[in-house]
Design goal:
- This protein has helices spanning about 25-35, 75-80, 85, 115-125, 150-160, 165-185, 190-195; strands at about 5-10, 35, 40-45, 50-55, 60-65, 90-100, 105, 130-135.
- With about 200 residues, it is an alpha/beta fold.
- Strands 1, 2, 3, 4, 5, 6, 7 and 8 form an eight-stranded mixed β-sheet that branches.
- Helix 2 (about 75-80) runs parallel beside helix 4 and helix 6 packs across helix 7.
- The longest helix has 24 residues, at about 165-185.
- The chain is globular and about 45 Å long.
- About 40% of the residues are buried.
C-alpha cells in the first residue's frame, strides 16, 4: 500500500518559529500531535525531521525539511522516487494570495512564485503533486487577500510572527486543513477539492 508523504514547508531554527512562512511546518507538527505517529527522527542528509504513522487508516510519513525554504525539495526527493510517489505527496505551505482563515487544495500547478514549492518541483522533476495552500494575508472587507506589495515588505511580512488573534484564527484553519488531509489520504485529491475548496 502506498504511503502518503505530507510535507510542511518552513525555515529551521528558533527565530522562525511562529512566523507566517512556517505555516506548513506548523500544520505538520499539529498533525503529528493529533494523529497516530511515532517519534520525530532527525536526519543529517538531507537535513530534515520525519515521522511515520497513519492518517485515516492509511500509512503516512510526515516530513519537515530542516533546510531553508529554497532547498526544501531535497528532503522530499529522499522519500519520493517516481511519478506515482509524487501523486501521493501533499505539500502544505503559506499562501499570500489567500486571506488568513482559508485553505485551497490544488494539484499539478506551477509554484506561484513560492520558493519552497519551486524547490520541490525542481527536485521531483514534476509538479504533479497535491498542495494545500494556507492563507496568511489579512482580508479586505470583501474577504479578498490584502497582501503587502514590494519584495522587502513581503519578506518582512512572511518572516513576521503571527499575532495572538491570528494564531487563534490559524488554529481553526488548521482544523479545516487537517480534515482536508484526511479526505485526500482516504478518498483522493479530487474528493478533497470538492469537499474543501
Amino acid at each position: 500500500m502506498a504511503t502518503h508523504i505530507i510535507v510542511g514547508l518552513g525555515n529551521p531554527g528558533a527565530e522562525y518559529e511562529g512566523t507566517r512562512h512556517n505555516t506548513g511546518r506548523m500544520l505538520v507538527e499539529r498533525l503529528h500531535a493529533t494523529h497516530d505517529f511515532g517519534e520525530w527522527k532527525t536526519e543529517k542528509k538531507p537535513k530534515m525531521r520525519w515521522a511515520r504513522g497513519s492518517i485515516a487508516g492509511k500509512k503516512a510519513t510526515l516530513v519537515a525539511p530542516d533546510t531553508f525554504m529554497n532547498n526544501s525539495g531535497q528532503a522530499v526527493a529522499h522519500f519520493v522516487k517516481n511519478k506515482s510517489g509524487a501523486g501521493n505527496t501533499i505539500v502544505v505551505y503559506d499562501d499570500l494570495d489567500l486571506p488568513l482563515g482559508t485553505i485551497k487544495i490544488s494539484h499539478d500547478r506551477s509554484s506561484g512564485g513560492h520558493n519552497g514549492v519551486q524547490s520541490v518541483i525542481r527536485s521531483l522533476k514534476t509538479q504533479a503533486f497535491v498542495r494545500i495552500r494556507v492563507g496568511v494575508s489579512p482580508a479586505s472587507a470583501k474577504g479578498v487577500a490584502r497582501k503587502p506589495s514590494g519584495e522587502d515588505k513581503v519578506l518582512k511580512f512572511l518572516l513576521g510572527k503571527f499575532t495572538g488573534s491570528e494564531l487563534a484564527e490559524l488554529k481553526k484553519t488548521f482544523k479545516k486543513a487537517i480534515e482536508a488531509v484526511e479526505t485526500i489520504v482516504s478518498e483522493g485529491y479530487q474528493a478533497g477539492m470538492t469537499a474543501h475548496n
